[in-house]
Write a structure and sequence with these properties.
By secondary structure, the protein is α+β, with helices and mostly antiparallel strands. The chain has one domain: Beta-grasp domain (Ubiquitin-like (UB roll)), CATH 3.10.20.30. The protein has a five-stranded mixed β-sheet. It is globular. The N and C termini lie far apart (32 Å).
């Protein structure tokens, strides 16, 4: 199992547990866990409605690719810890991370 923590827009944290090898991205897991994620583009890194902030564990994630960086560059309130949940595959890289759903969007 892969375990990580999600902090919602109200500041409440919840441990999420997903099986390894489910072939989903973080955005899909967040939506399935009933978080209010729009994901307007369906995971193509074209809308940024799944933006999250990585509170802990950023160093464990694969670096963002150009299409993700380009989309993040268009947003007013991003930090070096911002990522698009649709671009993060559910794998051992997510084990133990803490992410916060961005409260400044939408």
């Amino acid at each position: 199992m892969i375990n990580f923590t999600v902090i919602d827009r109200d500041g409440a944290g919840k441990l999420i547990e997903v099986p390894e090898g489910i072939n989903l991205n973080l955005m899909e897991v967040l939506k399935a866990s009933e978080y209010d994620i729009l994901a307007t583009c369906g995971g193509m890194a074209l809308c940024a409605t799944c933006q999250i902030e990585v509170i802990r564990g950023l160093e464990n994630l694969k670096p963002a690719e150009d299409n993700e960086l380009n989309m993040l560059d268009t947003l007013p309130n991003v930090s070096i810890d911002s990522r698009l949940a649709c671009q993060l595959s559910v794998s051992e890289q997510l084990e133990g991370i803490i992410v916060k759903i961005n409260s400044d969007l939408f």
